[in-house]
């Protein structure tokens, strides 16, 4: 059963704690996104819930563990499991991250950044090509938050993403929160980042909350996904929509999960921004 297309509206990242609520109340959410790895099982309660969910809602799959940018080859077992999942679930969108998170058989509980060099770009182009060939479809890749900057990087992050999309044919999942987090952490203009991303490559936008930390080195933002979207990120989201046009957007919340109504309210706020750009384009 092929999933319905993702509408140009605001969806919610569905976590297991909210599955029962969604199945019981069938809220008016335009689409849901689930983490791919949570569905690598052959069956069980979560798969039953997913099957029931995708009959009524468009769904996308968002991977967090493939480690596309690792110096090690892609894990064949992980890639095979993802291919089997995509063939079985037929999601509207499949996405991954521009990062690494595993090497030498060890997996780290984080999405770790790459140096933005020609060598890393060549590696990512090859890995994205391998992924798209294995799945038989175009994928979206997401920019990640980071807390270090590699001094030997020769490209800006946005130049890296633009070149990756152009050379591999993939799309971009532009995380607006991550753009803002990195702009503060690394001292660049967030709007310049948005201006440097090819609009026609962007297939989806993500929004989430961050945590502010203060220390001897100044302010640091942590992409914690455990609170409401910050006012500065809402402003950047508005700028992004004005720059690239309306795109499917998603509210993410992964820790200290609130009542589902809080996520719906965040989606309502995003919809108000989306409606503005949609009205201007009409």
From TrEMBL:
InterPro entries reported in the protein's UniProt record: MbnB/TglH/ChrH, Xyl_isomerase-like_sf
Top-level taxon: Bacteria
Annotated Gene3D superfamilies: Divalent-metal-dependent TIM barrel enzymes
Record-linked Pfam families: MbnB_TglH_ChrH (PF05114)
Coiled-coil segments: none
PANTHER family in UniProt: UPF0276 PROTEIN HI_1600
Family affiliation: Belongs to the UPF0276 family.
Protein name: UPF0276 protein UU7_15520
Native organism: Rhodanobacter spathiphylli B39
């Amino acid at each position: 059963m092929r999933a319905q297309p993702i509408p140009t509206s605001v969806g919610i990242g569905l976590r297991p704690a909210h599955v029962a609520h969604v199945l019981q109340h069938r809220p008016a959410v335009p689409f849901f996104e689930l983490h791919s790895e949570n569905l690598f099982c052959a069956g069980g309660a979560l798969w039953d819930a997913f099957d029931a969910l995708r009959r009524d809602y468009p769904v996308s799959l968002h991977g967090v563990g493939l480690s596309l940018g690792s110096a090690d080859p892609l894990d064949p077992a992980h890639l095979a499991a993802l291919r089997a999942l995509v063939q079985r679930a037929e999601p509207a969108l499949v996405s991954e991250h521009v990062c690494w998170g595993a090497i030498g058989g060890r997996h780290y509980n984080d999405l770790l950044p790459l140096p933005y060099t020609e060598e890393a770009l060549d590696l990512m182009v090859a890995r994205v090509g391998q992924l798209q060939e294995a799945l038989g479809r175009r994928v979206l890749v997401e920019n990640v938050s980071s807390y270090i900057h590699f001094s030997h990087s020769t490209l800006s992050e946005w130049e890296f993403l633009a070149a990756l999309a152009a050379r591999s044919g993939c799309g971009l999942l532009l995380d607006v929160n991550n753009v803002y987090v990195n702009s503060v952490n690394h001292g660049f203009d967030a709007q310049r980042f948005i201006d440097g991303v090819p609009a026609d490559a962007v297939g989806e936008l993500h929004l989430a909350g961050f945590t502010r930390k203060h220390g001897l080195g100044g302010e640091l933002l942590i992409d914690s996904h455990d609170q409401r979207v910050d006012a500065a990120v809402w402003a950047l989201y508005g700028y992004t929509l004005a720059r690239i046009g309306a795109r499917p957007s998603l509210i993410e919340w992964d820790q200290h999960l609130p009542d589902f109504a809080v996520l719906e309210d965040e989606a309502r706020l995003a919809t108000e921004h989306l409606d503005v750009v949609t009205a201007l384009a009409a």
